[in-house]
Specification:
The protein is α/β, with parallel strands linked by helices. The chain folds into two domains: 183 residues, D-Maltodextrin-Binding Protein, domain 2, CATH 3.40.190.10; 139 residues, D-Maltodextrin-Binding Protein, domain 2, CATH 3.40.190.10. Helix content is 41%, strand content 19%. Strands 1, 2, 3, 4, 5, 6, 7, 8, 9, 10 and 11 form an eleven-stranded mixed beta sheet that branches. A hairpin with a 3-residue loop joins strand 5 and strand 6. It is globular, with a radius of gyration of 21 Å.
Length: 335
């Protein structure tokens, strides 16, 4: 009897674990004998093309794709690095820290531009801007803000329009949101003035860009700040109500990165996937790309990109993070 009970508990725990993923999907080749497990913060519908073309070229390999948030990805991987073969994330700082802490397998034979890789272990394959995205209806007859200062002025001028209708990341929960916020704060004090104005308007806080864009589309919010530009670009192709603004005062552009787990048991297949990912996104594959509206790292020349270098980990220091979050909460949560 006790073995039966133990089995039920084990199965229940397994089901609970499965339900914790934002999305989980298996892509299988016609003759799959090898399985790659990829943990990623990129939505499956946006990443599926690279997996499908990889499997078409490697029918003996299946891919299990697990989607979760950037902060949770970091926590899950640290807790059990042997459970995954590849990690893909938009949170550059957390990825760099994982590699710096020895969680990645070096791939010295993969050719890549120097500034888009770290220690031949972490590889960038997109360059994506943080954007202000607006619902055009809220700005009908009004000037469209092109800088953070102009956004501040627009929000202050019509508080009745924007109260409880401005959204941004909850940086306490989102690794990417925290990265964007700390980079903005380093670039200009305008960031903190904007946070205070948002806080005074009862800002809505989100885990991820996709949810913000959903609420923009249905009019729940009128402005989303620091939305991942790639997700917004994918939606504006079909949603004419949305407009993307890349602030002209100072840019914040991140690189989406991938690395192979140092504990992978599928080294050859994992390295083959990284090679395919880089070639695919650079347009050297079948011509399609992950998040096709974006520029690849090699092509970005007009917007400053957050560099893959040790300084990126500055705000991951426990004391610095605690201080930053305290200041952020003071500005954003105004009871």
């Amino acid at each position: 009897m006790r073995y039966f009970v133990a089995l039920i508990v084990w199965l229940a725990a397994g089901c609970a674990m499965a339900q914790e993923w934002e999305h989980q999907e298996t892509f299988s080749g016609t003759d799959a004998s090898v399985s790659l497990r990829i943990i990623s913060s990129t939505d499956a519908d946006l990443f599926a093309p690279v997996i499908e073309t990889f499997i078409a070229a490697n029918p003996n390999i299946a891919v299990e794709y697990f989607v979760t948030g950037t902060a949770e990805l970091n926590e899950r991987f640290r807790a059990d690095p042997g459970a995954f073969d590849i990690a893909v994330s938009s949170a550059m700082d957390l990825q760099l820290k994982l590699v710096n802490d020895g969680f990645a397998k070096p791939l010295p034979d993969i050719p890549h531009v120097a500034w888009a890789q770290w220690r031949q272990s972490l590889f960038a394959f997109t360059s994506e801007p943080a954007a202000i995205v607006i619902n055009r209806q809220a700005f009908e007859g009004q000037p469209i803000p092109q800088t953070r200062q102009q956004l501040i002025e627009a929000l202050r001028a019509r508080p009745e329009t924007f109260r409880n209708r401005v959204g941004t990341y909850d940086v306490r929960q989102s690794g990417l949101g925290y990265l964007f916020a700390t980079q903005d704060a380093r670039a200009s004090e305008t960031f903190w003035r904007l946070m205070e104005v948002m806080g005074s308007l009862d800002v809505r806080l989100y885990c991820c860009s996709g949810t913000m864009i959903d609420d923009l589309t249905d009019g729940t919010i009128a402005v989303a700040y620091n939305v991942l530009g790639s997700y917004a670009a994918a939606r504006t192709e079909s949603e004419t109500i949305l407009e993307i603004i890349l602030p002209s005062d100072f840019p914040t552009t991140m690189m989406r990165t991938a690395f192979v787990s140092g504990q992978t048991t599928q080294s050859q297949a994992a390295e083959r996937f990284i090679r395919h990912l880089i070639a695919f996104q650079s347009g050297q594959g079948d011509g399609r790309r992950v998040l096709p509206a974006l520029k690849t790292p090699q092509a970005v020349t007009d917007r400053a990109t957050i560099a893959l270098q040790p300084a990126l980990m500055t705000f991951l220091d426990v004391l610095k993070r605690r201080k930053f979050l305290a200041e952020w909460e003071d500005a954003m949560i105004q009871d």
